[in-house]
Amino acid sequence: MGNDLAGTFPADAPGLPRGRGRLDREQVREAQRPRLLRAAISAIAEVGYSATTVADIVTRARVARAAFYEQFPTKEACFLAAVGAGRDSVLRQVVTAADGAASHDWSAVVRAAMREYLRVAASEPEFTRAWTLELPGAGPAAVRLRNEYLDTLAATMRSWHRMSGSPPATDNTYLALVGGCLELFYRYVADGRTAELPELEDAFVSFLTTGLQRFEVPTAE
């Protein structure tokens, strides 16, 4: 995987098939949507959310402005859809990696998940920059989307932890641990060190495993 979640289509890139009978209207919309999502991430990662315009997005996607508004009412809606699609893709890959580890070995599950998460983030620098640095400033709906993402990560961690047979911690403990990891993640991205994210694997694994050992609460007898 590499830059599957962002991209600019150059002027000499193949366009969508044209002419009667080549693609029906719904097929055209389905083909245009991922181009717009990838172009939005690419533009916002490069110049920032506030500076990005719909014109920037459609130019990168090689899609007409009218086609953009058939899909999205605003730039914000397009960006949130792009982040949501990317988030789902990343989580699928992380869950697949974690499922390949022994479910009873909490440390092994965490390591497999963190290794894949950091690998994917480093391989998708535009998407990583866009959601990490630009999403919080894209309005209240974007903040809610970010919080939902953190909640999903915490809930996934809680599920893995309980499957390992370990005593459960509180919901806020899982959320705090995820937040702690993402703060260091944010600093790397903000400092232009996205390619170096995989080096955080040991720190994240240590933080998550020892953190839960300290804050686990016993189950009721």
CATH architecture of the domain at 76-215: Orthogonal Bundle
Helix content: 55-70%
Radius of gyration: 20 Å
Question: Are there runs of 5+ residues with pLDDT below 50, and where?
Answer: 9-13
The main β sheet shows up as:
none
What is the number of helical segments per DSSP (H or I, 4+ residues)? 9
Report the portion of residues in β strands: under 5%
Number of strands: 0
CATH topology of the domain at 76-215: Tetracycline Repressor, domain 2
Instruction: Provide mean pLDDT, rounded.
Output: 86
For the terminal residues, how far apart are their CA atoms? 47 Å
Q: What is the H/E order?
A: HHHHHHHHH
Specify the structural class: mainly alpha
Quickly name the level 1 CATH class of the domain at 76-215: Mainly Alpha
Report the principal-axis shape: elongated
Which secondary structure elements does this structure contain, and how are they paired or packed?
Layout (H helix, E strand, L loop, with lengths): L24 H23 L6 H8 L3 H7 L3 H25 L6 H18 L1 H10 L5 H24 L7 H20 L10 H15 L6
Helix pairs in contact: 1-2, 1-3, 1-4, 1-6, 4-5, 4-7, 5-9, 7-8, 8-9
